[in-house]
User: Fold N-acetyl-gamma-glutamyl-phosphate reductase from Putridiphycobacter roseus.
Amino acid sequence: MIQIGIIGSGGYVAGELIRCLVYHPNVQLNFLYSTSQAGRKVAEIHEDLFSADNLVFTAVINPNVDVVFLCLGHGNSSKFLVENSFSDKTVIIDMSNDFRLDKDANFQGKDFVYGLVELNQSKIKKAKYIANPGCFATAIQLGLLPLAKAGLLNDDIHVNAITGSTGAGQSLRATSHFTWRNNNVSIYKAFKHQHLNEIGESILSLQKEFKQDINFIPVRGDFTRGIFASMYTKSEMSEEELMDLYSNFYQNNKFTFISNKTINLKQVVHTNNCLIQVQKIENKVLITSVIDNLLKGAAGQAIQNMNLIFGLEENTGLNLKASYH
Ligand SMILES: NC(=O)c1ccc[n+]([C@@H]2O[C@H](COP(=O)([O-])OP(=O)(O)OC[C@H]3O[C@@H](n4cnc5c(N)ncnc54)[C@H](OP(=O)(O)O)[C@@H]3O)[C@@H](O)[C@H]2O)c1
Assistant:
């Protein structure tokens, strides 16, 4: 069994990892490290895990585990790795944006590979250190990669993406308070969201001459989970050509699918899938991409990466069912 350690186990992404990993046939949860919950039963915090009564948060790390998932906020992963070390064989999969950009990818002599499977599958299979992509970044990149690979992003790109409240983590703040969030919508970090950097690097890795603007308007939505991203740019291709381009790009992919009809968020929430619709309207291509932020946008994608590194079927432990109604 692959021995797993989780850091930041009291948080939302860690909770989702635990939920998936207790049913993964090839792993054992070795330790669940938590600064705030050590000594308590996991089910006291992640209350739906009441049947996994044996799981307890700990303040002790086992440095010899096979995989450690860092589920900490930005800046805290690098700090944690400075203060704690793991064996040379330990695979580290980090959820924060500490190691995602080229300039940050080498840390303490560890080379982090950007863990977007649809972009970097062969590198991921050989990697020991993974920088798991951001949730918005995942939905948006999966919508743009086929056009970038074909060198067809030749005009400014306009993106609007709406996220559920779990995207902001478990700590309470004004915009996650029920009274504010319920029946409400608002924009934040317009044109400046930090995920633009990783999106830009991935596009440039496929389309070297790309220099257009990506105008991204992130939106807080009145729901708990999922990301609904729509993006458009000018295109000279027909809808049929675009559909062929996208279908061919993702044909060998286990989790990214192309739809020829209107898509909606509930088709993917609670799954590791990404669903994409491509439409040609007048002189523009409109791409809609939906994911679950906690799964394909975080914990599910991290398990997908782990499966590839350990030579397991990519979808092991990730055959999840949407809760459609
Ligand atoms: N939420 C999403 O949809 C999503 C999607 C993609 C990526 N991510 C990224 O994944 C990471 C975790 O996100 P999350 O939503 O799970 O956040 P979260 O719910 O806020 O959990 C983060 C955990 O980090 C620990 N922590 C908090 N402050 C700390 C500090 N100063 N030093 C060390 N540990 C601290 C806490 O765990 P303990 O009390 O148990 O130690 C906390 O529960 C973030 O980097 C986030 O950007 C999140």
Summary: DSSP finds nine helices and 14 strands in the chain.
